[in-house]
## 1
Amino acid sequence: MSKYLLGLDNGGTVIKAAIFDLDGNEIAVARGSVEMLSPERGHYQRNLQEVKDGNLKVIREAIAKAGVQGSEIQAVAITGHGNGAYLIDQDGSPVFDGVLSADSRAADIVQKWNESGAAQGIIPYTLQTLWPGQPPAIIAWFMQNRPEVLQKARWVLQAKDYVRYILTGEIYVERTDISGTSMYNVADDCYDERIFSILGISEYYRLLPEVRNSSDICGYITADIAEATGLKEGTPVAGGLFDIHAAAVATGIVEATEVPRLSVIVGTWSINQYLTREPDIGVTPFMTSISSSPGNWLIMEGSATSASNLEWFICNFLQLEKEQACKNGKSIYDFCNAELHKTTAEDTDIIFLPFLFGSNIDSPIYGSLLNMRMRHKREHVIRAIYEGIVFSHRYHIDKLFSKYPQGMEIVLAGGGANSPEWAQMFADALQIPVETTKVDELGALGSAMVAGVGIGLFSGLEDAADKMVHVKDRFEPNAELGQVYERKYRDYVSFVEKLAK
């Protein structure tokens, strides 16, 4: 009998199920979506019955596409968006829609915590920046505005922990996820009532479930879920991963090394991260969370300033080109890459600030195209968008490293990794070699890997990475283009600084 692993990836709207063999080959993928609800400005949530139905549907479809038997799937694990809040009662029933990490209903509360010093007061424990989409802020909002919801609630879960509960009937949170929520003492790896006390939400410390590790078996597929999906009843379900950790694992970044390997994800968010064995308690990056590998922490700088900006441009200005590409059996991204080849880095000085969905500085700056002239055409604008997103990633990477360590490499993931042109641009602009990996569904692969570790198919994550992660391409930096991009990056930073004043 063949052996397979199933990984589930629950993003803010898209749900994916992918089946992998033990060599890391993607056998089948099924995708579905759950509507994002926005009943009020800044409120982003989704119906949890639809989340359940969506996950069962993609599992069923992935098994059918793969042409495998449910009994051949050895284990399951899940990844999902971090933060937000999924509140359920003692019986496991939702008491409210799942609140997404993009939610900003608690922005005023976080602002008050910043002004009072409470937000800074928890940093020695959480080692991360507190923001409105995190569970403590959402809990505080409910406490002030909908206390009846919290009165019914018994547990606060993360997205993938809720999905795991659906599959198994067991309630746990997983360590990589909970450590990224500003509800956990990341420095000491434990729950800490002082965090809740400083934020004035002590009475809701009771909402915290037991913590398990990524590869711990946290339950088994129940009979009703087996019937609904085609999985075998009793199939083990591992703890899973926070999605940023899943992406790192799926690109082979599973242990801290003397020279850091940087995981860069070009997606909805600009994610820039690496593993360390000694987090710097005196420095506060956007997030420090606990790795799935014991004794490692994941240090991350990020913001909503990445490929979502290109998606916006495509949706608003390239619809006809997108339709034509589809008719020709091609992708709109092939069209964008072809447009890049009509230009060079030297022949335009347009600077794009990729702040359509938020900025990466503490100032209300919005997306901008600067230095536009009459001679510029569509291809110049597309190049500027690609470059601006690269520069935003570099802005975060420069926060992580005042000087890039000699020999450092980048492993590029997300939609941007599918564009050789973009990958080369990263290598040239940062003057760091860039690698891409073969698999498309990184989150699902990372989940499948920890599932395999959990049932003993691999001796650990390093063994899983050796067998399941494979390099696709490598891009070496061009020193001459590096000088061009260095000048343009300085212009980018100058514009940001001037507009922030």
Note: DSSP finds 19 helices and 22 strands in the chain.
## 2
Amino acid sequence: MRDYPAQCKADAVALYHSRPGVSVASVATDLGVSTETLRSWMRAPRPVAARPVPAGPASVETPVEEENRELRRQVAELKQEREILRRSR
């Protein structure tokens, strides 16, 4: 049985919560842990994180801006996954 650092567990849970509509199994597979391991981390008590304050009124985005925003989100997500995996080794 492997022991993961607390920060790694918190990052994995945060990653799951940052990806609406994605299953626990999908995130667990991406991180290389079992589904039940990720679920147990999600059930563990943890401090309440500060919620981001929404920015001003939403602006109209062009299709290119929307695509760029989505690609940036995906890159950030992949970097976060890579960092979680790097710390868990």
Note: The CA atoms of residues 8 and 83 lie 9 Å apart.
## 3
Amino acid sequence: MKFLRILLFSILIIGLTFSIAAAGKHTPQERGKALFNDPKFAGGSKSCNECHMNGKGLEKAGAKKEFTIMNKKLNSIEDAVNFCIEKANKGKPIDVKSQQMKDIVSYIETFTPR
């Protein structure tokens, strides 16, 4: 009986380890797309996709060095993301060096033709 418990516990731990490892293998673009479509991202009230349906308006964002949104000049894509989060989505800005920012920028860059 003790052997059976140990065996079941081991299988559970191994399965959990593989699940966690598999979850971590999503690409930055996949994680960014999930954030882009999440209405609760950054504490907001709607998803980025509600204003930028299928990336509308973001077609060249990945190639830009400067952005003008609502007559405000922004010096990076990260600043533009946070501006939209705060002004359009009524959310809280995210750390420009965070994994979430890297992921959402990575997804936004997929809209820029190469």
Note: The mean pLDDT is 85.
